[in-house]
């Protein structure tokens, strides 16, 4: 078969000509060794696992399971888990880039398949590498509120997380022994170098330029700098350093940030209309209905609670409002009741949110009329917004018009 022969010849040419990029020794560098690959891989494994667990916790808030109710306390818990989620995701960007740089000659190494195990391992690299890049890229783009895609971010970020973590566990299984060995031996590892013709074949010192230590310092320095330049969006004392954070927790209407304004949500008219009513309905003995003024005069309970956006910014404020649990009693709901709030906003996934039993009965779960002593502004949810302890920002529904008891 002449076509096949020509192809074989071409591959041979590509992989033996020292000037061509597929030549097997074109990527030799003292930095591309097992120890560095293992160290960067282990760091990335820790960062990705932290992101995965905190991400699952966030998912559980937004897609509740009746048999695994999320707690309403401590009030600042979600602020911490989500702050860590976003910070670990941002910090993993330079680590991921460095890891890919160190190991990428392997992706083009030949022979393409050495054994069945090698084939499985190689196929598994695709979901790992593509998934890892996707998770970090989509997460950071979401924090920057840049949506260069058509799919829904939360669902894609959630499902690809499972694929990536599965591939990570498989990769860990495949590399465990070699990585452990590489991390233990301090300097020369002739056994490893011999075992791996692609990586680790150039002795350190024979190559000028960056040392392993220098590379690690650069990578972790970059990760630290990115963290300091963004974490002030949630660790408020550091907010002046948060040069790369898209949100300043002290800037916005009433000195607090807003993602979706009343105008964007299309509620300018309905929220300010004299026809506005807040109603309590569903499984109740006495349905209730209030005007905006009635709500403001009933509102007597104070609570200091954070708004913790899934995007990683948060702020704490003093809220004044009507307790949801008092409304449940007034309406004659059964003691085990749960509830759902609905916004005047139409057709958004954030126009409704659920309160499980602990959340609905928490003394600080409020339908708020006041923010830091002032009537709540239109962009923060006038005339009424939900604010409860331990909840993600997306569940702190603004422009509330209905409480449906279940
Ligand atoms: N009806 C409605 N409520 C909403 C939203 C929304 O888009 N529509 N955004 C939520 C999100 S994502 C966050 S982080 C908080 C932000 O509250 P703030 O704008 O008052 O700071 O409101 C939440 N409540
Ligand atoms: Mo948010």
Secondary structure topology:
Elements: H1 2-16, H2 34-62, H3 77-107, H4 116-143, H5 153-184, H6 190-195, H7 212-228, H8 262-265, H9 268-272, E1 278-282, E2 288-290, H10 292-298, E3 301-308, E4 314-323, H11 324-331, E5 339-343, E6 352-355, H12 357-361, E7 366-371, E8 374-375, E9 385-387, E10 400-405
Parallel strand pairs: 1-10
Antiparallel strand pairs: 1-2, 3-4, 4-7, 5-6, 5-10, 7-8, 7-9
Bound molecules: the ligand Nc1nc2c(c(=O)[nH]1)N[C@H]1C(S)=C(S)[C@@H](COP(=O)(O)O)O[C@H]1N2 and molybdenum atom (MO).
Structural features, described:
This protein is an alpha+beta fold and 406 residues long. The chain has two domains: 2-241, no CATH class; 254-405, Alpha-Beta Complex (Sulfite Oxidase, Chain A, domain 2). Helices cover 46% and strands 13% of the residues. It has twelve helices and ten strands. The chain has helices spanning 2-16, 34-62, 77-107, 116-143, 153-184, 190-195, 212-228, 262-265, 268-272, 292-298, 324-331, 357-361, and strands at 278-282, 288-290, 301-308, 314-323, 339-343, 352-355, 366-371, 374-375, 385-387, 400-405. A five-stranded mixed β-sheet has the order 2-1-10-5-6. α3 (77-107) crosses α4 and α3 (77-107) runs antiparallel to α7. The longest helix is centred in the middle third of the chain and has 32 residues, at 153-184. The radius of gyration is 27 Å and the shape is elongated. Mean pLDDT is 90; it is low at 190-196 and 200-206. The protein binds the ligand Nc1nc2c(c(=O)[nH]1)N[C@H]1C(S)=C(S)[C@@H](COP(=O)(O)O)O[C@H]1N2 and molybdenum atom (MO). The site of the ligand Nc1nc2c(c(=O)[nH]1)N[C@H]1C(S)=C(S)[C@@H](COP(=O)(O)O)O[C@H]1N2 has 21 residues, from loops.
């Amino acid at each position: 078969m002449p076509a096949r022969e020509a192809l074989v010849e071409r591959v041979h040419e590509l992989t033996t000509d020292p000037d061509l990029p597929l030549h097997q020794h074109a990527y030799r560098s003292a930095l591309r060794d097992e120890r560095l690959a293992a160290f960067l891989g282990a760091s990335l494994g820790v960062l990705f696992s932290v992101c995965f667990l905190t991400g699952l916790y966030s998912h559980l808030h937004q897609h509740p399971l009746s048999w695994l109710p999320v707690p309403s306390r401590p009030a600042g818990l979600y602020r911490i888990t989500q702050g860590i989620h976003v910070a670990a995701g941002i910090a993993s960007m330079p680590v991921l880039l460095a890891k890919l740089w160190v190991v990428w000659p392997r992706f083009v190494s030949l022979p393409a398949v050495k054994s069945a195990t090698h084939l499985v391992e190689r196929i598994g690299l695709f979901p790992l590498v593509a998934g890892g890049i996707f998770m970090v890229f989509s997460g950071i783009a979401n924090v920057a509120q840049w949506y260069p895609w058509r799919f829904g971010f939360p669902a894609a970020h959630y499902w690809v997380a499972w694929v990536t973590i599965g591939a990570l566990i498989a990769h860990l299984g495949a590399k465990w022994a070699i990585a452990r060995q590489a991390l233990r031996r301090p300097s020369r590892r002739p056994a490893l170098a011999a075992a791996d013709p692609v990586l680790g074949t150039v002795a350190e010192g024979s190559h000028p330029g960056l040392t392993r230590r220098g590379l690690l310092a650069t990578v972790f320095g970059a990760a630290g700098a990115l963290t300091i330049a963004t974490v002030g969006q949630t660790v408020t004392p550091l907010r002046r350093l948060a040069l790369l954070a898209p949100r300043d927790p002290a800037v916005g209407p009433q000195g607090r940030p807003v993602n979706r304004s009343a105008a964007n949500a299309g509620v300018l008219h309905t929220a300010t209309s004299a026809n506005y009513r807040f109603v309590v309905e569903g499984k109740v003995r006495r349905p209730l209905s209030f005007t905006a003024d009635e709500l403001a005069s009933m509102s007597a309970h104070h609570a200091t609670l954070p708004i913790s956006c899934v995007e990683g910014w948060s702020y704490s404020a003093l809220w004044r409002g009507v307790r949801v649990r008092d409304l449940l009693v007034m309406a004659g709901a059964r003691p085990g009741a749960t509830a759902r709030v609905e916004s005047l906003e139409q057709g958004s996934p954030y126009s409704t949110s659920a309160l499980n039993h602990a959340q609905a009965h928490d003394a600080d779960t409020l339908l708020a009329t006041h923010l830091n002593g002032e009537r709540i502004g239109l962009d923060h949810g006038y005339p009424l917004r939900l604010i409860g302890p331990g909840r993600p920002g997306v569940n702190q529904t603004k422009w509330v018009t209905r409480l449906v008891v279940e």
